[in-house]
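Could you show me some protein's one-letter sequence and the numbers that encode its backbone in two labelled lines?

___
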Amino acid sequence: MGRRLIPLVLVLAFVPVLSGCGEDEAETFAKDYRPLNKQILALGSDVGETVNGASGKSDEAIEKEFGSLAQQTGELQQQVDELEPPEDLQPPTDQLGEAMDDAQDALRDIEAAAGKSDPAAAREATIQLVRSSEDLREARRTLERATR
C-alpha cells in the first residue's frame, strides 16, 4: 500500500504548482489587448488628422498618406486576429477585426481614388471609412471596458 501512496502524494503535491502556472484566459487576453488598444487609438487619431488635413494637398500626397494608413491598419488588424479572446469576448474581437478590414479597404479606396484624381470615388470611400470607423469604435470600446 505504501508504494501506491507515494505516487499519489507526489501528484497531489504538484497539482497546486501546476494550476498556478497559467494565467487566467481573460487576464492573458487583457494583457495582450491593452497595447493594441493604444495603437488603434493612435492610428484612429492619425486617420482623423489625415482626413481633416487632406484638403489642399496634392493627389500624390493623399495617395501616399492613405496608403501608409491602410498598411498600418492591416498590420494592426492582423495582430487583433491573432488574439485569443475568452469566449464572451470573441464577438467584439471579431467585430473589431472586421471593422478594421473594412477601414483598411476604405483607406485603400481613398488611396486609389487619389491616384486616379477621382474626387467622387474619394468621397464615397470616405463615407465608407466613417461607417467602418463607427463599428470599429464600438468594438474597441467594448473590449477596452472588458480589459480594464
